[in-house]
Amino acid sequence: MITDEQVHHLLNDGVVLDESGDKVGKVGQVYLDDESGRPEWVTVSTGWFGTSETFVPLQSASVQGREVRVPYATEFIKDAPRVEADHHLSERQEAELYRYYGLNGAGGDTSGRQDSAVGTTGVDTNVGHDTSGPNTDDAMTRSEERLDVHTENVATGRARLRKYIVTENVTTTVPVQREEVRLEREPITEANRDQALAGGDLTEEEHEVVLSEERVVVDKETVPVERVSLGKETVTEQVEVTEDVRKEEIEADVPEHRTDRG
What we know:
Blueprint: H1 4-10, E1 15-17, E2 23-33, E3 39-46, E4 52-57, E5 62-64, E6 67-69, H2 74-78, E7 88-89, H3 91-101, E8 115-118, H4 193-196
Parallel strand pairs: 1-6
Antiparallel strand pairs: 1-2, 2-3, 2-8, 3-4, 5-6, 7-8
């Protein structure tokens, strides 16, 4: 059973967590059973900027510090019947909520049972009388909505390095050398006369010369040329948020013949 001290913690910036431990929203009010005084319901602020309150049963809930964890998914909680959080639950409203969550009231019967909200001190605020409907004290509380704007990190994309092979045609010019036959004729002189007459007068001869040339040989080798890596940097930009907020105004209806005599 949730204690009064735990209720006090929840009413001071408490949060509701769903079955996965994710935050559903901030705790609005805790409702106690009028007969037993046990905590029965907690309201959680959902919707844009927490402008809507949804009822969640505290049966099977666990409390640790300012966190209350309930065995329901966030979307299921947000789809619960919309009941005005006006410090008091009627029998019809409570029965509707129990049907939605598939639970029974105390003893399986909600007949004659009503739940009321508690304030931050754990004291029942259902006192006094108001001709407009719910019972309050002799003063009005003026409330207004405040924007709670914050940021959260979300994944917007992934960057990946991928290496693949492309083939390109490379053309280059290489000088090559080859040998060619060239006839060289020289006249008979005193210097070469003996060599010229060394053979017979008339003979048949053959001389052979080996010719050579350079051929192009292509070899390839793989060499590293650069290193590429992924880096991240944070940039800051200004985003303008526009939202309507509501606030209550209080005015007094005073008879014209009544004056303030100070």
